[in-house]
Structures are given as structure tokens and as C-alpha cells.
Write a structure and sequence with these properties.
Shape: elongated
Mean pLDDT: 82
Strand order of the largest sheet: 1-2-3
CATH topology of the largest domain: Alpha-lytic protease prodomain-like
Largest sheet: 3 strands, mixed
CATH superfamily of the largest domain: Cation efflux protein transmembrane domain
Number of strands: 5
Length: about 325
Amino acid sequence: MAVGGSKTAIYGAIIANFAIAIAKFVAAFFTSSSAMLSEGIHSLIDTSNGMLLLLGIKKSKRLPDKEHPFGYGKEVYFWSFVVAIFVFSLGGGVAIYEGIHHLIEPTVPNSENVIWSYSVLILAIVFEGTSLIIAYKQYKKAYPSAKIRNIAESKDATTFAILMEDSAAVIGLFIALFGVFLTDMTQNPVFDASASIVIGVLLTFVAYFLARETKGLLIGESVLTKDLEKIKTVIDEYDNVEYYGNIHTMHLSPDEVLLAMDINFKDSITVGELEEIIAEIKSKIRALNPFYKYIFLETDGYTGKVDGRRFIDED
């Protein structure tokens, strides 16, 4: 998936989150609800996160230069990691703090103005739900056969960041709505405060997931095992290849991968034939997936142990 393909979902999330954040803060002011305040902070952070993701996409588009010969594609992963930190510290941390603070110093929300909370939360569910649908459609458009549980396999940090944030937002809104409802019915502020804490825990989990996934990509994550097997299938087609292995790959961006491997060719082939076969192998590998932008085939006569036609010490 091209990184730019995620922009529609990001723009939709930014617009929805900013509008909802204002409404939530207004409702929190009139009702003194900690859950509403936490949700307002959540939406404001999501708005900022969307802008950071757009910044990462823009920076990742810079052309390779002497200092960065493989380009700036990992800018996307860096800014996605920053988003994870924001979600954890400013989202989860503040929500948990607000909930604990209101448990220690309980304040019964103004029941006369609780209609503000209900109206804003229901409206927010509609907007956030729409944003989530847009993000999911973008994901399915790019990966038609993929299932939602395989989202991290896309290696598109912006896509799963937006999907995770929007999903957390919708769940958080229902939690807030439940907390406000119970507090309104019982006039017991513990439900409202508890909802804030649960929202904070939810955001902390989302932050952990985002950080874990983007960290792997940031420090150099390989392609999936099924993609490595496809590469081996291509090489196995060539009888002139005596041994091969040590296949190493690394994502440079969601749609750029570096591939390096050792190949030993039979001594009977000429230099001209060798060049033709190497060019053909590269072409077939790129036909599997165009994200193999950089392909390096080492042919200096590896002498390690082999099993059949493959090096047994390959990763």
C-alpha cells in the first residue's frame, strides 16, 4: 500500500476528532464530568496525532541523498512511534489521573446539564464510527484479501495507527456513555471516575500495541515468512543455481523493502548468462511484489554447510 493511501483516513480522523474534542470540552464544562474531560483530551490528542502522521508521510517522501541512500521511508515509522508515546502519556496517563483524582475528591456531575453529555457522546459515536468506517475501507482497498486481525502485517504504520485510534475512540465513547448514565441514575460520581480510568487503561493498551509494532519496523523488520517462501520458490526454478540462502529483508517503508541474499551458481555458466539470470531473478521477485525496491544478490562463492540447495544457517 502506498503511504499516501492512508491520507484520506487521516484527514477524516483529524476533522472528526477536532470537532468532537470541542464538543466534549463544552459538555465537560457544563457537567463537571471527568469521563467527558478525559474523552475531550483523548479527541484532542487524536487530532494532534493525525497531524503528526501527515508530517511523517510528507517527510518520508523525500528522495534518497548521500546521507540517506535508501531514502526517508522510515520517517513514517518514527512519527508513528511518537504518536504511540503521545497516546500513552497524554491520553492514557491524563485519563487515569483524572479518574483517580475524582475518586479521591468526588464531584457529582450536574444532572440538569447531563443532556450535554448524552448529546455529545451520541454525536461523537456517529462521527468516530464514520471515521473508523473510512479508515477500514481504505485498509480493505489496499489489502482486499486481508482480515482485520492481520492489520499489523500490512507494515503500514499510519493505517494501523488510525484504525487502532478510531477503534479505541469508539470503545471509549461507549465506556464514557455508560459511566455518565450510571452516575446520572445513581448520583454516585464513582461510576464517572471509574469510566475515566477504564478509558485511560484502554488508551495505554493501544499505545503499547502501536509502540510494539512501530518499534519493530523502526529498527528493521523483515517481510513475512510467507513472502520469504515465495522468494525461495522463484530461486528453486533455476537449475543453474547450485546453492542459495542467507535471505535478509528489511522494510524501509510500507512500500519499500531491501532484499539481500547469497546465491552460488554452477561454474559451467558464462558471465553473460550469469548477468541475464540475475536480472531475470530480480524481475521475477519484483513481480511477486513491487515493494522489493533494492535487491542485492551476493555471488562470491559462499562455502558454508548446505542442506539440499539451501544454506542451513540461513535466518
